[in-house]
């Protein structure tokens, strides 16, 4: 029997992933500041609380095997909110992991940790999953900080840390940029399962994207941990390109972070 703690379980990704991550012998412990009213009591348990409340975090982490840390602000926000929820909140998770002997933390990093990399800089070869951070806002910066916190807790305490630089993890690509950045729900679950496997022992930073025809973010680092995406956003291309041209002259497509690169710093989206 193993217990997987999912922080931010009431959010978009948590809702999408819960049914896909249920396995015989695995309990999903769901942690969120918002109530969840459709708990499957045979496979799930719920802990109410915020990542900004260290006692609540401690109670949530006690007794789990792995933490899947999805909790936090998921787009641009004020500096103080970003610091307390994303940075301080993640540090609280790591501290609790050390205290309770948790050996693995999988974090939802983001493409926005590296949002200023461009298609032209990637050149002929796809952009590596562990390329140097170039945040495109306070939110992206917090994801870079979360990745670096993971490195610290890996090197100090030997915790296995897998930082997932997630593209656009939704039921379908949210817009035409998603033709490159989309990660389907099934591929998201595949990436999480790979992150839980023995092949992911150690420290890894990988892209979270599907096998998109128009993708230019490398699958090489994901392949190392056994991630084999099967879906392709191309099935949405005709519809999504009805009003847009697919050209890397378009800054939305040229830069990893798309429109986030131009969004005013600290302004909530
Ligand atoms: C993210 O990091 C956000 O959490 C998500 O809402 C999307 O905006 C995604 O990036 C994206 O770039 O599509």
In words, what does this structure look like?
The protein has 269 residues and is of the alpha/beta class. The protein has one domain (3-268): Rossmann fold, CATH 3.40.50. The protein is built from ten helices and nine strands. The chain has helices at 12-21, 54-61, 79-99, 119-122, 138-157, 178-181, 185-196, 220-224, 237-240, 251-254, and strands at 2-7, 26-32, 44-48, 66-69, 104-110, 160-166, 168-169, 182-183, 203-208. Strands 3-2-1-4-5-6-9 form a seven-stranded parallel β-sheet, with helices on both faces. The protein has a two-stranded parallel ribbon with strand order 7-8. Helix 3 (79-99) links the parallel strand 4 and strand 5 (104-110). Helix 1 (12-21) crosses helix 7 and helix 2 (54-61) crosses helix 3. The longest helix is centred in the first third of the chain and has 21 residues, at 79-99. D-galactaro-1,5-lactone is lined by residues 74-75, 110-112, 168, 181. D-galactaro-1,5-lactone (15L) binds at residues 74-75, 110-112, 168, 181.
């Amino acid at each position: 029997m193993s217990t997987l703690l999912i922080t931010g379980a009431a959010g978009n990704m948590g809702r999408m992933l819960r049914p896909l991550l249920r396995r015989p012998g695995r309990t999903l412990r769901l942690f969120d500041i918002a109530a969840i009213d459709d708990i499957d009591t045979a496979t799930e348990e719920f802990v109410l609380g915020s990542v900004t409340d260290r006692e609540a975090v401690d109670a949530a982490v006690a007794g789990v095997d792995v933490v899947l840390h999805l909790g936090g602000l998921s787009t641009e926000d004020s500096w103080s909110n970003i610091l307390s929820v994303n940075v301080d909140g993640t540090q609280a998770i790591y501290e609790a992991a050390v205290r309770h002997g948790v050996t693995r933390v999988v974090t939802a990093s983001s493409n926005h940790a590296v949002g200023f990399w461009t298609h032209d800089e990637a050149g002929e070869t796809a952009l590596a999953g562990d390329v140097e951070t170039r945040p495109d806002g306070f939110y992206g910066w917090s994801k870079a900080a979360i990745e670096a916190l993971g490195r610290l807790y890996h090197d100090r305490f030997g915790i296995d840390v897998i930082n997932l630089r997630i593209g656009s993890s939704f039921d379908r690509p949210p817009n035409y940029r998603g033709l490159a950045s989309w990660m389907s729900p099934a591929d998201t679950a595949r990436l999480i399962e790979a992150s839980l496997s023995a092949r992911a022992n150690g420290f890894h930073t990988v892209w979270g994207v599907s096998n998109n025809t128009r993708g230019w973010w490398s699958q090489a680092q994901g392949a190392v941990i056994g991630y084999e995406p099967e879906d392709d956003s191309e099935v949405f291309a005709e519809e999504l390109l009805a009003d847009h041209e697919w050209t890397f002259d378009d800054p939305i497509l040229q830069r990893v972070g798309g429109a986030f690169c131009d969004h005013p710093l600290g302004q909530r989206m």
